[in-house]
Amino acid sequence: MALRMWASSTANALKISCSSKPNVSLAFSLSRCFSTVLDGLKYANSHEWVKHEGPVATIGITDHAQDHLGEVVFVELPEQGGSVSQGKGFGAVESVKATSDINSPISGEVVEVNSKLSETPGLINSSPYEDGWMIKVKPSSPSELESLMGPKEYTKFCEEEDASH
Amino acid sequence: MRGSLWHLGQSITRRVAQADKKAAARRFFASEADLKKTVLYDFHVAHGGKMVPFAGWSMPIQYKDSIMDSTVNCRQNGSLFDVSHMCGLSLKGKDCVPFLEKLVIADVAGLAPGMGTLTVFTNEKGGAIDDSVITKVKDDHIYLVVNAGCRDKDLAHIEEHMKAFKSKGGDVSWHIHDERSLLALQFAGFERMNCLWQLNLVRGPLAAPVLQHLTKEDLSKLYFGEFRIMYINGALCFLTRTGYTGEDGFEISVPSENAVDLAKAILEKSGGKVRLTGLGARDSLRLEAGLCLYGNDMEQHTTPVEAGLTWAIGKRRRAEGGFLGAEVILKQLEEGPSIRRVGFTSNGPPPRSHSEIQDEKGNHIGEITSGGFSPCLKKNIAMGYVKSGLHKAGTKAKILVRGKAYDGVVTKMPFVPTKYYKPS
């Protein structure tokens, strides 16, 4: 996922970038620790997950990602039948505070999109790994999955990323 | 702005770091170290404030509540904001009113003592240098608050004109209130409480009762735009009944050594209803109220007429001019501006600043300057500039987001009705 711009953020207005300080908030640190990372999934460093089952891989954003984004108010998804490439954007998620690009963790053909998200974008917050899935892809290079992180690695990655800010 | 996520902008630092680790590290530490802290900094951190750099200050963008919850709570209960990054300034001397009138569009002379108004500092071309709330404390004392991000240029501008004014014998001097902190307490206006619960719950907004516990002065006699100097929680404060949310409320300039105690007392007296609120919700609230954010919705090249602030140009000023850029502004008043600031509601993703606005045939007609999802209305709201003639409420338009056109319609502002406390 990639941050594109602030809402009509005051920070944006003044052309000032934001950065958060480490250890500022117990509440935030706790919520990070409580973010769920599921076994059996693969994770990209841009905070998308992929679940490969049989011929199809399901893709969404992680609990950690939705927690940082805040309430999702709009989801933009690709057309069924289109293609996605590893590391390239395929859609966008809008929260109250920001617009974020969603990158595909793997390459392939989009065989299904979660149409429920157009009516109920909040599913991304309430159920990031189940009802909030975004697209299903027929992978074109299954070996790409090996370049992704496992659950333990991703948990560590999130901790390190949070700690560095 | 693209790069790998993280919250509200951590990303930006990180993205730079990925591109050039060493240089970015230097910049990061330099910027962190250079950031100014308000006296409430530790208080914010202790309350879960997520601190971000803003206009050279480290300020809370949000606390534990989400921006959505925080925004809604302000209108249902109340919010306390630390706005000490903004710059309070007093102009004193027997000629301070004629001096200020050279720089702003307001009829300062016509303000009753103890009354304030929103105004605009203009440049020679009639463009806005900044917007500001100014108060005539007395005929020889003006108190004003300017935007944090504009502080340096505003002060330089005022100083330059003050030197010239004084060299011609004018009596004016200034005092920058760096010894004070500024808190904004905003609270649900009572009309809203009536409509929410169909009950005449509290005659008068709740902001006053909360603050009323902390002062002997009768706040029910202090109406929107009015200013008093009074003791609040034992400290001598400048109190203005104003705000940036559309709700009722106060801005309280308090001696910095008393600011934390005052913030604690307000939160305590509200019984938990007034919650600390950060810049994120403040931006949603002001957008819902249709209020301009300088730097987004108003810039050096925007005139007050284009920005829809014609009401802020005093009648006498329209007749007499006498402020910087008056020729341009008075001509626009006569002929009408070529572009105008309007509100929009829209389908699809929320428009953001710089989203293109097209007419129904696909012709470019303007640009969005602020936009987002309204936490209170649960729909997209935005403001931007369009060509005159296409500015009337109900005019259909297309708003481009990531290359796709979505339906939008010009909508009257404020999007959420304002609840200012005015004499009935």
TrEMBL record, chain A:
Lipoyl-binding domain: residues covered: 56-138
Protein localization: Mitochondrion
Listed GO CC annotations: glycine cleavage complex; mitochondrion
SUPFAM superfamilies: Single hybrid motif
Cofactor(s) needed by this chain: (R)-lipoate
UniProt keywords, alphabetically: Lipoyl, Mitochondrion, Transit peptide
InterPro entries from the UniProt entry: 2-oxoA_DH_lipoyl-BS, Biotin_lipoyl, GCV_H, GCV_H/Fam206, GCV_H_sub, Single_hybrid_motif
Cofactor: binding details: Binds 1 lipoyl cofactor covalently.
Keyword Transit peptide belongs to the record: yes
List of residues that carry N6-lipoyllysine: K97
Gene Ontology BP terms: glycine decarboxylation via glycine cleavage system; protein lipoylation
Main location as per UniProt: mitochondrion
Keyword Methyltransferase set for record: no
Record text on subunit structure and interactions: The glycine cleavage system is composed of four proteins: P, T, L and H.
Function: The glycine decarboxylase (GDC) or glycine cleavage system catalyzes the degradation of glycine. The H protein shuttles the methylamine group of glycine from the P protein to the T protein.
Similarity section: Belongs to the GcvH family.
Name of protein: Glycine cleavage system H protein
Source species taxonomy: Eukaryota, Viridiplantae, Streptophyta, Embryophyta, Tracheophyta
From TrEMBL, chain B:
Binding site for substrate: E251
Keyword Transferase listed: yes
Pfam family, one: GCV_T
Major place of residence: mitochondrion
Annotated Aminomethyltransferase C-terminal domain residues: 340-416
Alphabetized UniProt keyword annotations: Aminotransferase, Mitochondrion, Transferase, Transit peptide
GO biological process: glycine catabolic process
Subunit structure: The glycine cleavage system is composed of four proteins: P, T, L and H.
Function per UniProt: The glycine cleavage system catalyzes the degradation of glycine.
UniProt protein name: Aminomethyltransferase
Organism: Gossypium gossypioides
Taxonomic classification: Eukaryota, Viridiplantae, Streptophyta, Embryophyta, Tracheophyta
